[in-house]
Design goal:
81% of the residues lie in helices and 0% in strands. The chain is mainly α. It starts with a helix and ends in a 6-residue tail after the last helix.
């Protein structure tokens, strides 16, 4: 239906960095669906909406609105995780880490731990999207903290997962990002320190 179209469009726009259009799709979804039922479809929808709200918050777009929206969705995952930890806990970890990386970036140890927890939980259930996003977002966070080698290790791992998942273009975008930021010379050092988990 229409909501599924909006959801898929929002996901694609988010993954490829068109955050304005992703935000527009989130608004359309919000108008047409309460999203209150904890079905897997509703959970996926709210996860994507939370990612878009957090990305917009990071950009400084409608900060109050997007923080409120992200907080609401994270709260739902807190509740759902109590009933279905294997289904929702890794998703919650990623969202909490992303929120904290925006609102309290100095809490580095906690943020890294939550990204890592999200990755490991996703790996356990085979959720490649959360695995890739956990590494990519952790790489962004570490890069912003000046930890280039660690950031590259995460982006490289994320690119590998996206390739394995079938997201060749997304993988290529990440590899171009590393080369474009003149991080190519650090790739070897990153590869040597890299593990299969996110730090």
């Amino acid at each position: 239906g229409v909501l599924q179209h909006y959801m898929v469009t929002m996901e694609l726009c988010y993954m490829f960095g068109d955050l304005d259009e992703a935000g527009r799709m989130a608004d359309l979804i919000n108008e047409g669906n309460s999203g209150s039922s904890p079905t897997l479809t509703a959970a996926m929808l709210q996860f994507l909406e939370a990612l878009v709200a957090l990305a917009q918050l990071k950009r400084g777009v409608q900060r109050a609105k997007n923080r409120k929206r992200a907080t609401k969705f994270i709260g739902n995952f807190v509740k759902w995780s109590k009933d279905g930890p294997e289904t929702f806990e890794h998703v919650l970890s990623l969202l909490e880490a992303e929120m904290k990386s925006i609102t309290s970036p100095s809490d580095e140890k906690w943020i890294i731990s939550r990204f890592n927890h999200g990755y490991l939980g996703a790996e356990k259930v085979g959720n490649m999207m959360i695995m890739a996003l956990s590494c990519e977002r952790l790489g962004d966070f570490l890069g912003g903290r000046g930890r280039k080698t660690d950031a590259i290790a995460q982006w490289k791992r994320a690119a590998e997962i996206y390739s394995e998942w079938g997201g060749m273009k997304k993988s290529r975008i990440l590899r171009e990002k590393m080369a474009g930021d003149d991080f190519e010379r650090d790739i070897q050092a990153a590869a040597e320190s890299q593990s299969k988990t996110c730090i």
